[in-house]
Amino acid sequence: MSVSAHRPVGRRTFVLGTAAAVGTAALGGPPAGSASAVSAAAFGWRDDGTHFVVDTGASLVFKVGKSNGDLTSLVHRGTEYQGYGGKNSHIESGLGSSTVTIRQSGSTILISVAYGTLRHYYAARSGENNIYLWTGKADDSVTATRFILRVRSGLFLNDEPDSYTYAPTAIEASDVFAKPDGQTRSKHFSKLRVMDYDHVGWSSGGVGLWIVRSNHEKASGGPFYRSLLRHQSADGGGLYEILHYGQNQTEAQRFGLQGPYVIAFTDGGAPSSSLLPGTLTTPWADSLGIPGYVGASGRGRVAGVGISGRDAAYRYTVGLANTAAQYWGSARSSDGHFSVGGILPGVYTLIVYKEELAVYSTQVTVSAGSTTTLNTFSLPSANDPADASAIWRIGEWTGTPRGFKNADLMTYAHPSDVRAAPWTGNVVIGSGTETSAFPCYLWKDVNSGIVVHFKLTAAQAAAAHTLRIGVTTAYANGRPQIVVNDTWTSAIPSPPAQPGTRSLTNGSYRGNNHTFTYSIPASAWLTDTSRYNTLKINVVSGSGSTSYLSAGTAIDAIALLA
Questions:
Q1: CB 215 within 8 A of CB 277
Q2: Which of 23, 69, 201, 523 is the most exposed place for a label (fewest CB within 10 A)?
Q3: What 3-state DSSP class applies to 263?
Q4: Which residues, 6 or more positions from 94, have their beta carbon under 8 angstroms from its beta carbon?
Q5: Whole-number pLDDT of residue 15
Q6: Helix or strand (DSSP H, E) at 244
């Protein structure tokens, strides 16, 4: 995992994580500390009656409520950063009455919070401006989708896609907003998949405040999952560690201890590379007795010598998952070598993804303290639909709508955004714009009935052909039904399993990849080879609402096979 770096762009500073830009534009510096701000002194803790007050001995003092385990104060260099709208930082929207204890072990102070079957921990290390957190879920009796760090207003103003400071009009539910200029904002519009970032936060006036994510082994959704990471409104900002988020979720909730994730203050730069997932080690936590904690010696590794049969034009990712944990890593572009460490012992399904499309699967067993080595293996061509001979194709088989009209914008904007190109418009095979002119999303109430125009040779028109339409997710069971030359109509396909929440309007195309297959008889084609055949794609469903919340689907690729 590479060390973070910084790249100034005008007044904006973008912080680069392992693979993608993660910072925001900081337009204002921190105000003077409040009268209640506490200055850092020697490492230690005290009980003020209602809070445990921890001084890290660096420049950080924080308070945890004794009655509920909320983080109620976060003072760095005399400035209070915690809180907006009268709310604390906590699991979900606050746990409520909890049992909260504290103890010191040498250079570590550990605060433990017990609420029903949930356990939550804050750890401070002497001389560090960091707070290490773990959250343990034994079951679903306690709702715990996130830890949210709430930050006071006026500290890190910005106008990034996941900010709605300057977007006063709600246009969908209570979490998607429009600015007067027609641009849209939402806390869901992070742009990033989990694998694309390792820290998220803000930097301004010589201070950086970040949450460094955990390895997400107990979260769900895999390496390509997208969810809210931060937000900012006029009241202040929020930074998240996602524990299990239900929005466009493809997996069941996992249970166990997730962490550590880290609240980190810096001098304005990115967090230290030693804090990042994949490099962070916490041997000092081995003896703290945190239930469910597994140190480095209790974990294993999976390494692959190489993967053959890859297409060099695409990135390949190796994922490992079972019902208890998930992990992933990148395959080396030169030979497909991969190495994924820090894995809890168990039997895992290993999946190789071409971009986000699964093209290989096998089972591996991981043991504590050892490496499971796999010899070079080949990707079966039958697993990659791109290897099938096609008369024509729109898009690439990547498990994403990459290259389609509005595809990139939809990871950080609502479909109604003024920057979106028109969602309508037919395409002609051979024009050179087949993919870029075809909308990445189709909705029953917006652009159902898009038409593809194409010619066939006499030999092609004399034969039956198979049409494939790959999708990446669907909303309200939206799926494609096709009409060829206004004379032949396919049956309505059964809806595949997809998440039941909003997706296409919330910055995520990632659901369950599925390929619809249609057998088109030769009688459906035009025999005059000078004329264009037409393929109309309708979206059908008995569910959904209207407009962009009508039934819809996201397109991966469309191919007419030879």
A1: yes
A2: 523
A3: strand
A4: 68, 70, 87, 88
A5: 35
A6: none
Bridge partners of 428, per DSSP, are: 453
Amino acid at 324: A
CA nearest neighbour of 24 among 150, 148, 159: 159
Residues 297/290, Cβ–Cβ less than 8 Å: no
pTM: 0.91
DSSP 129-167: SEEEEEEEESSTTS---EEEEEEETTSS----TTB-TT-
Q: Of 495, 514, 522, give the one whose Cα is nearest residue 554.
A: 514
Q: Which residues lie across from 481 on neighbouring strands?
A: 538
Cα 384 to the chain's mean position, in Å?
24
Do residues 450 and 512 touch, judged by C-beta distance below 8 A? Answer: no
Q: Give the model's confidence band at 29: pLDDT under 50 very low, under 70 low, under 90 confident, else very high.
A: very low
Q: Which distant-in-sequence residues (6+ apart) come within 8 Å of 306 by Cβ?
A: 335, 336, 337, 376
pLDDT band at 22 (very low <50, low <70, confident <90, very high): very low
- CA dist 555 to 166, 189, 332, Å? 32, 20, 28
Token readout for 121 is: 């921990």
Residues 239 and 292: their CA atoms lie apart, in Å, by 25
H or E element in which residue 370 lies: none
Q: Which amino acid is at 101?
A: T
Cα dihedral 432, 436, 442, 448 sign: negative
The number of angstroms, rounded, from the C-alpha of 95 to the middle of its chain's C-alpha atoms is: 25
Of residues 32, 316, 81, the one with CA closest to residue 202: 81
With 50 as the cut, is the pLDDT of residue 5 above it? Answer: no
CA distances (Å), origin 77, targets 34, 381, 547: 11, 59, 50
Computed from CA positions of residues 314, 320, 321, 325, in that sequence, does the dihedral angle turn out positive or negative? negative
Q: Which two tokens stand for residue 331?
A: 């395959």
Q: Which residue has the tokens 């990446």?
A: 472
| Residue 141 pLDDT | 96
Q: What is the largest CA-CA distance in the chain?
A: 88
DSSP designation for 3: P
8 A C-beta contact, residue 113 and residue 95 = yes
Whether the per-residue pLDDT at 27 is higher than 70: the answer is: no
How remote is the C-alpha of 105 from its chain's centroid? Answer: 36
- Which stretch of DSSP H or E encloses residue 535? strand 533-540
- Residues 349 and 359: their CA atoms lie apart, in Å, by 13
| Separation between Cα atoms, residue 170 and residue 505, nearest integer Å | 13
